[in-house]
Amino acid sequence: MTRLVEVIAKALVEDPDAVQVTETEKDGQTVIELRVADKDMGKVIGKQGRIAKAIRTLVKADATKHDKHVVLEIVD
To answer: Fewer CB in a 10 Å sphere around the end CB: N or C, the chain?
Structure first.
Protein backbone atom coordinates (compact mmCIF):
# COMPACT_ATOMS: atom_id res chain seq x y z
CA MET A 1 0.00 0.00 0.00
CA THR A 2 2.91 2.35 0.55
CA ARG A 3 3.82 1.90 -3.10
CA LEU A 4 0.30 2.92 -4.14
CA VAL A 5 0.45 6.13 -2.07
CA GLU A 6 3.95 6.89 -3.33
CA VAL A 7 3.00 6.52 -7.01
CA ILE A 8 -0.09 8.71 -6.61
CA ALA A 9 1.77 11.41 -4.65
CA LYS A 10 4.71 11.53 -7.07
CA ALA A 11 2.29 11.99 -9.97
CA LEU A 12 0.69 15.00 -8.26
CA VAL A 13 3.67 17.01 -6.99
CA GLU A 14 6.30 19.20 -8.64
CA ASP A 15 9.14 17.73 -6.53
CA PRO A 16 8.71 13.93 -6.61
CA ASP A 17 12.10 13.39 -4.93
CA ALA A 18 10.74 14.97 -1.73
CA VAL A 19 7.92 12.42 -1.40
CA GLN A 20 8.39 10.12 1.59
CA VAL A 21 6.00 7.35 2.57
CA THR A 22 6.40 5.34 5.77
CA GLU A 23 4.27 2.54 7.18
CA THR A 24 3.95 1.71 10.89
CA GLU A 25 1.70 -0.41 13.07
CA LYS A 26 -0.29 1.32 15.85
CA ASP A 27 -2.99 -0.25 17.98
CA GLY A 28 -3.69 -3.05 15.52
CA GLN A 29 -3.98 -0.81 12.48
CA THR A 30 -1.53 0.22 9.81
CA VAL A 31 -0.66 3.92 9.66
CA ILE A 32 0.77 5.26 6.41
CA GLU A 33 2.43 8.68 6.70
CA LEU A 34 2.88 10.79 3.59
CA ARG A 35 5.36 13.66 3.56
CA VAL A 36 5.81 16.05 0.64
CA ALA A 37 7.60 19.35 0.12
CA ASP A 38 5.87 22.37 1.66
CA LYS A 39 5.17 23.87 -1.75
CA ASP A 40 3.39 20.66 -2.85
CA MET A 41 1.16 20.25 0.22
CA GLY A 42 -1.78 21.98 -1.45
CA LYS A 43 -1.55 19.72 -4.49
CA VAL A 44 -1.78 16.60 -2.34
CA ILE A 45 -4.62 17.92 -0.19
CA GLY A 46 -6.59 19.67 -2.94
CA LYS A 47 -9.47 22.10 -2.69
CA GLN A 48 -11.52 21.32 0.41
CA GLY A 49 -9.46 18.14 0.87
CA ARG A 50 -10.90 16.38 -2.16
CA ILE A 51 -7.63 14.89 -3.42
CA ALA A 52 -6.64 13.70 0.05
CA LYS A 53 -10.06 12.11 0.45
CA ALA A 54 -9.71 10.39 -2.93
CA ILE A 55 -6.28 9.00 -2.00
CA ARG A 56 -7.68 7.75 1.32
CA THR A 57 -10.55 6.06 -0.54
CA LEU A 58 -8.12 4.22 -2.81
CA VAL A 59 -5.99 3.15 0.16
CA LYS A 60 -9.07 1.95 2.03
CA ALA A 61 -10.21 -0.08 -0.99
CA ASP A 62 -6.80 -1.73 -1.25
CA ALA A 63 -6.76 -2.38 2.51
CA THR A 64 -10.20 -3.98 2.38
CA LYS A 65 -8.97 -6.30 -0.34
CA HIS A 66 -6.17 -7.44 2.03
CA ASP A 67 -8.47 -7.51 5.09
CA LYS A 68 -6.55 -4.76 6.91
CA HIS A 69 -7.42 -1.45 8.59
CA VAL A 70 -5.25 1.34 7.20
CA VAL A 71 -5.12 5.05 8.03
CA LEU A 72 -3.41 7.61 5.78
CA GLU A 73 -1.89 10.65 7.49
CA ILE A 74 -0.55 13.56 5.47
CA VAL A 75 2.21 15.06 7.62
CA ASP A 76 3.75 18.54 7.42
So the answer is: C
